[in-house]
Design goal:
The complex is a heterodimer of chains A (about 500) and B (about 450).
Chain A (H helix, E strand, L loop, with lengths): L44 H12 L22 H7 L2 H5 L10 H18 L3 E3 L5 H18 L7 E5 L5 H8 L3 E5 L9 H7 L4 E6 L12 H10 L3 E6 L18 E4 L1 H4 L14 E3 L11 E5 L2 E5 L18 H39 L3 E2 L10 E4 L1 H7 L3 H10 L6 E2 L8 E4 L7 H20 L1 H5 L12 H6 L15
Parallel strand pairs in A: 2-3, 2-4, 4-5, 5-6
Antiparallel strand pairs in A: 1-7, 6-7, 8-9, 10-11, 11-13, 12-13
Chain B lengths: L7 H11 L29 H15 L3 E2 L12 H7 L2 H4 L11 H18 L3 E2 L6 H16 L4 E5 L4 H11 L5 E5 L19 E6 L9 H10 L3 E6 L17 E2 L2 E2 L4 E5 L15 E5 L12 E5 L5 E5 L6 H4 L12 H38 L4 E3 L9 E5 L3 H10 L2 E2 L2 E2 L10 E4 L7 H16 L5
Parallel strand pairs in B: 1-15, 3-4, 3-5, 5-6, 6-9
Antiparallel strand pairs in B: 2-10, 7-8, 9-10, 11-12, 13-14, 14-17, 16-17
Helix pairs in contact in B: 3-10, 5-10, 6-7, 10-12
Classes of the chains: A alpha/beta (about 500), B alpha/beta (about 450).
Chain lengths: ~500, ~450
């Protein structure tokens, strides 16, 4: 498809969007002004609307396709959450407008804080982090601040299981810690013997996702928590999989000291093709003074953002404003539409869907990574046997699923399971959709035997055939320029 | 059950396939003492009609204001098409485009965005966004230090937003980076070429700066380059239709290096994101090709498919956390995808001429307002030299008191600088974008005149 620049005609513009005149800039020094013209398209409003509408049709999305992407919680994003968060009064409010002009907004955020405190079993929360990874950063920075505040400065290591999201070790490194990775045992639990060997006076903390990215609940969590606490470390909960236990198990009760929550997963805010996310961070009592700023404080009718004067021991600010406010509103609206009972139903039906899909696939002959375990809200199929027999890889299989109208599950993560598909159906999908997905999986498994080329060269029905990633990395083409070849050979 | 489609009959059939007696059994691997009862403290469910009423009541509580605050977030007209297009489910409810063949819409859009931002800033490449301007500046600092390899000192002028400086400190705190703040000239409100002669990795140059003043970007760039340091341009992209782009700052060729800033970053909000109490906005980051492997965040590249046709995919992922883990350039994963989609549509609708016109009218409006206010007794413009679409005026009484008075008239009069810059006295930062009419400027001027004509209360 053409690029927007290739629709450009010199002298054309979207007239209704133009201010009526160009004002003089004569008072500005000549040497500070721009002489060349930036490469922006010169197109009509219809050109723009048609181009970006047509482009949108080249995307899979939750609204158009089943999207069982493991560890990403691609559940339905209720439309009311969007339309109500986009009421003009919310959109027009300046972040530095006085608190008195934002009591409706701040009340919503304050109540969201209360809801998050309740479901996590923590003492306080900050809504400031703008994504999960920033929540992790805040969490680990608070762990460091807590140790420092006690003069306990010899702790240099953060322990991370090998199944963890890549953000965990990357975050620990950003906070100046060395990462100690520990293996997983055959049942998908943390290898306690390996953990014992690395825990010690150098341990600042441990980062854990529970249920883990292997799709199983870490059953020894209380033992792990006491081991880490006994050594003087703190426990970080990666909330990426909170959807699995929402309303049933509180991370605070498992012994965690810090948790981030991905609102763009568990609280149904949109992923938007990559973001914006939101990663509030909640803590137990001893870490409250260190929470990042700003936080919503005060009382009904007089809510305001707490700053450095209110919270002098805070780790500080993570952004120019208050985090992703519009995302927070969407999460709040979602939580209110579900209520306490509805939030608890989320985990129950997400787990039902995952276990049903897992059972159906197992009965259809697929290998499970952990066949003896219950699925949490997600589970892993390994295609290693199929790969050995037919040469069809998990990637081939995933691409062929696209032809059947299903977004692929997460592939090749977690890395310790070979040829894996990490499948997370979420609670918002119906049995009929899950059955159709099983049928597609069975059909592709049959194709892998009968017509392996068909699977190896998939997809066949999408706007493009399989893309050459090696070429993309070897000869990076990251921006277009005038005179460059058109989009089609 | 809101957003859960299951009927009792389906649940029964599913449990039978699973071989579980009931739903409770699905949690039988969780230690029983961890499972809690239903939470009575949580509110009861509201249906869509009820939540609609509630949110309308909430937003009505907040009122509507005539806003003259800038200070990093700017009120601009956003064409109706922008958010109507990007809230289409195909953009709104898609994930990060890891399955490239099923995500060509988002990917091509990001490639177009990268092209626009690189051109706007006059640099070679752009990433696919960071969280916001302040955190993007922190990432730019880390990137420059990685690229410099020798020094970990970074110079940041005090004419950079105090909140940005605070954010940088939080994010780089544990990576051994020394942030040195540079003073400003109290007459011009700009940063003089520093006297600092120690080795440093990078100099941040804001343009326009936090006071709205235009810095001597050429002199500062050449000074930093002559000392082997990187230049990080912190710019408002809305101004780049008319202001010299960072890639052209300074001399063309200093000690063999290409002229211009090495990295440009800033807040993308002015290009199509609503103020929205501060987010979601986005941070942009562009740089010279030589620095691309030091970049944090996602990048989209154009490549070929199996038939030789062009297509788009995420690329150079060996920099990122999901591949590199503890050795990644940053821990960033989610970015601000939907907001840059809005920005891309916004920039397409405005085009080069629209961007120029909007910027020129913002400049003219702020000039006109500043002149009108400065003509009042008790008000003077604080800095000499050129400002763009914000300016600082000094009042004869505490700013907070004056802003309170303006609020009585429905006006948000600007940003009170006296907390962060007490040395400036009763200083007020104000901004009049293209959204303000001549009547709005008159209303502000008359209201302020009325307030200042009253005896000072304290």
């Amino acid at each position: 498809m053409k690029l927007i620049f290739e629709h450009s005609v010199a002298g054309r513009c979207a007239t209704a969007q133009m201010p009526h005149r160009l004002n003089s800039l004569d008072d500005l020094p000549e040497h500070l002004l721009r002489r060349d013209e930036p490469l922006l398209p010169q197109v009509s409003e219809l050109d723009v609307v048609r181009h970006y509408t047509q482009l949108s049709q080249r995307n899979f999305s939750i609204d158009t396709h089943f999207y069982p992407l493991g560890s990403c919680t691609m559940k339905y994003n209720p439309r009311a959450c969007n339309s109500l968060a986009m009421l003009p009064g919310f959109l027009d409010r300046h972040p530095f407008a006085p608190a008195a002009t934002g009591q409706g907004y701040l009340t919503s955020l304050y109540e969201l804080q209360q809801i998050l405190i309740e479901v996590t079993g923590m003492a306080a929360v900050s809504l400031a982090p703008m994504a999960g990874a920033q929540g992790e950063f805040a969490g680990v920075a608070m762990i460091r601040a807590w140790h420092d505040s006690r003069g306990d400065t010899a702790r240099t290591e953060i322990i991370v299981p090998d199944a963890a999201h890549g953000t965990n070790p990357a975050t620990a490194a950003m906070c100046g810690y060395t990462v100690r990775e520990i293996p997983t045992d055959a049942q998908g639990n943390v290898d306690l013997d390996a953990l014992k060997k690395v825990v010690g006076p150098q341990t600042a903390g441990l980062m854990l996702t529970n249920p883990s990215t292997l799709g199983v609940f870490e059953q020894q969590i209380q033992t792990i928590a006491s081991m880490i606490h006994h050594a003087g470390g703190l426990l970080y909960y990666d909330g990426a999989n909170l959807n699995a236990i929402l309303g049933w198990v509180k991370p605070g009760d498992m012994g965690f000291d810090v948790i981030h929550i991905n609102l763009h997963k568990t609280f149904a805010t949109p992923h938007g093709g990559g973001g914006p996310g939101s990663g509030p961070v909640a803590v137990s009592e001893r870490l409250v003074p260190f929470l990042p700023l700003p936080r919503v404080g005060g009382e009904s009718g007089h809510y305001r953002m707490l700053d450095e004067h209110d919270c002098p021991r805070s780790i500080g600010r993570l952004s120019g404003n208050h985090g992703n406010g519009g995302v927070l509103l969407r999460a709040y609206i979602y939580a209110r539409m579900l209520g306490g009972e509805g939030l608890r139903r989320v985990a129950r039906y997400a787990t039902l869907n995952a276990n049903y899909l897992m059972a159906r696939l197992q009965q259809a002959g697929f290998d499970l990574a952990f066949p003896k375990r219950r699925a949490s809200h997600e589970f892993i199929v390994t295609l290693k046997r199929l790969k050995d027999q037919t040469g069809i890889s998990a990637m081939d299989f995933a691409k062929r699923l696209l032809d059947y109208g299903f977004h692929a599950p997460t592939t090749y993560f977690p890395m310790l399971v070979p040829e894996c598909l990490l499948i997370e159906p979420t609670e918002t999908e119906s049995k009929a959709t899950l059955d159709a997905f099983v049928a597609a999986m069975i059909a592709i498994a049959q194709e892998a035997q009968a017509q392996p080329e068909l699977v190896k060269t998939a997809p066949h029905t999408l706007p493009v055939r399989r893309l050459d990633d090696v070429r993309a990395a070897r000869e990076p083409d990251l921006v277009w320029s005038v005179g460059r070849e058109c989009a089609v050979r | 059950m809101p957003f859960i489609p299951h009927t009792p009959a389906e649940v029964a059939a599913m449990l039978e396939i699973i071989g579980a007696p009931d739903l409770d059994a699905l949690f039988d691997e969780i230690p029983a003492d961890l499972i809690g009862p239903p939470d009575a403290a949580l509110p009861v469910a509201l249906n869509e009609m009820e939540i609609t009423r509630l949110m309308h009541d909430r937003v009505a509580q907040d009122g509507r204001w005539l806003n003259f605050i800038g200070a990093g977030g700017y009120e601009h007209h956003i064409p109706a098409a922008v958010w109507q297009i990007v809230t289409r489910g195909e953009y709104y409810s898609a994930y990060t485009p890891y399955q490239a063949e099923a995500s060509q819409g988002s990917l091509q859009l990001i490639y177009e965005y990268q092209t626009m931002m690189a051109s706007l800033t006059g640099l070679d490449v752009s990433n696919a966004s960071l969280y916001d301007g302040a955190s993007a500046l922190a990432e730019a600092v880390l990137m420059a230090v990685r690229a410099h390899k020798i020094s970990t000192r970074v110079l940041i002028p005090k004419t950079v937003s105090p909140i940005y400086r605070a954010t940088v400190k939080t994010i780089v705190a544990h990576q051994g980076i020394e942030v040195v703040e540079l003073p400003y000239d109290p007459v011009t409100g700009t940063t003089p070429v520093p006297q600092d002669e120690d080795v440093f990795a990078a100099l941040v140059i804001p343009q326009p700066n936090f006071f709205g003043q235009l810095e001597d970007v050429d002199g500062l760039t050449d000074w930093a380059h002559a000392r082997g340091a990187k230049v990080i341009a912190l710019v408002n992209p809305m101004t780049l239709g008319v202001l010299k782009p960072p890639g052209q700052w300074g001399a063309k060729d200093v000690s063999g290096a290409p002229g211009g800033a090495d990295i440009a970053t800033g807040e993308g909000q002015p290009l199509g994101a609503p103020l929205s109490s501060g987010g979601p906005w986005y941070g942009f980051l562009t740089c010279r090709t030589a620095l691309v492997r030091q970049m944090p965040g996602r990048l989209v590249g154009r490549t070929r498919d199996a038939d030789g046709n062009a297509g788009y995919t995420l690329t150079l992922q060996a920099r990122e956390q999901h591949i590199r883990r503890a050795k990644a350039t940053s821990n960033i994963c989610s970015n601000q995808g939907l907001v840059i989609a809005a920005s891309t549509v916004f920039m397409s609708l405005l085009g080069p001429e629209g961007l120029r016109r909007v910027a020129s009218i913002c400049h003219a409006n702020t000039r006109a307002l500043t002149a009108a206010l400065s003509a009042l007794p008790g008000v003077c413009q604080l800095f000499s030299g050129s400002s763009f679409h914000e300016s600082v005026v000094q009042l004869d009484r505490p700013v907070a008191q004056v802003l309170q008075g303006l609020m009585q008239a429905g006006i948000l009069g600007g940003y009170d600088l006296s907390q962060d810059y007490p040395e400036l006295g009763h200083a007020l930062l104000l901004c009049a974008t293209e959204t303000k009419t001549a009547a709005d400027l008159t209303r502000y001027t008359e209201q302020l005149a009325g307030i200042l004509s009253m005896e000072q209360t304290a």
